[in-house]
Each structure stands twice: as structure tokens, then as C-alpha cells.
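Q: I'm writing a short methods note and want an example of a predicted protein-small molecule complex. Could you take the sequence and the SMILES for fe (ii) ion and return the bound structure as C-alpha cells? Please keep the output block clean; save any remarks for afterwards.
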Amino acid sequence: MPTAPRSTLSRRQLLTAGAAAFATVAARGRLAHAGKAKAPPPGPSPSSLAGTLEQMKLPYPESALAPGISANVVSFHYGKHHKTYVDKTNDLVKGTPNAGKTLDELIRATAGKPDQQGLFNAVAQVWNHDLYWRSMKPKGGGTPSGELGKKIAADFGSFDAMVKELSTAATGQFGSGWAWLALDPADGKLKVMKTGNADNPLAAGKRALLTIDVWEHAYYLDYQNRRADYVKAFFDSLANWDFAAENLARKA
Ligand SMILES: [Fe+2]
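A: Understood, no commentary inside the block.
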């Protein structure tokens, strides 16, 4: 999604940041140095500091997305799948020059490099899930207003046309992957994307505004093979257009 600042944040900074600020900061993703009371000094992280990525906190209780997504699915998805990617990232960067780098930096550095595929998959899946949880909210759905609403109408013709295109991308993604509403800096227009496995818009130089996880672990326990019903529930009662609007408004 976003362009990442160069500096890292300490755990205390993350804990004391306001909820809104934390949402934005953590969505950008960075490796915090656990146990450090103060932010590390500017410049490269000392090699003796192991980078420790902390899994983002869910912005709502696990049961809050029901009935669109059950507490059972959120619990497994967040507590097992997402956490595994965080643990994997920490294992791969520990004691390496990558410790302390932001998720954005690591994604850009590893995208498209076969010898870095393992690290890319882990880091990108952390980043993707960080965005996914914020792409939803309890009693979400509806239609966006303001600048996002205007831009969707300008770039897709209407909100309904965008939802139709994004739904088609989500249901049509073959196998595991993601569907995205993204801003293409090349022409300044919003676009629908679908990506396989861990791939994401950031790796393609685009800014993600909203995402739908279409890996089976995101919906199978609730919907079995009915991915279209899960996607419909996303737009009917879960989509967090306020989050998408924040991502659109963010400077670079
Ligand atoms: Fe997932």
C-alpha cells in the first residue's frame, strides 16, 4: 500500500499512539524493536538488534464481523494464518541486514526476485493481512461519500460498477489470492486488481486502498465453496470505506 517512512517505531510508540494513528502506522507496516523504550536513532539499525515484527492488533473483537464472517473464522485466520506469516518474517530477517526494515521496504526489495521468494511471501502476506483486517469493520458496507465517492464515480462510472468489477475479480481469482481497489500513480486512476498468492499492488508500484482476501482460509469454514456469497457479505456488511478514503487521501 503506502510509501513507508524510513524510521522504525518502538513498541512503546505503537502502544501509546492514538487508535487512528496506530491504524495508519501499522497498516504501513514496519519492524518494531520489541523491548526498546525509545525509538532507535536515525540511520541503519545496529546489527546486534534483532528486528521483531509485532502482529497488528485486530481493530475489533473477533466476533464483531459476524454474521458476515464468524468469530471462528476470524480467530483461525488472524490467530493462526496471519500470525504464522509474522513469525516466518521474524525468523527470516532475524540477525540479517533486513531486521529493522519496514514491510514496504522489504516488499519492494524482494518482489520479483526468485531467490527472495520465501521472504517476499512471508512479508507480503503480513502486509496484505494488515490491510485486510482494516478493510472491514463491524456494520460496514454502504457507499463511500466525499472524495472517494467522487473518484470512484469518475473512474468507474458508478459505485455499483466498481463493486461489480471488484466482485468479479474476487470471485474470478483462480486459486489463492487477493482482490484490490488500488490507485495507479501512473495515471492517477483507481483500478481493480487481482493478485495470486502473496502478490500485491505495492509490488507493482500501486497504492492499495482496500482488499478482499480470497484464500480459502478466509471463508471456507463459513461459506465452503461459495466464495461469491463471502464476497457479497463483504460489500453488504463489512467493507470499510472510511479506511479506503484515508488511503486515497494519504500523501504518497
Ligand atoms: Fe488470509
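A: Remarks, as requested: The pocket of fe (ii) ion is lined by residues 77, 81, 129, 213, 215, 217-218 (CB under 6 Å). The CA atoms of residues 137 and 146 lie 19 Å apart.
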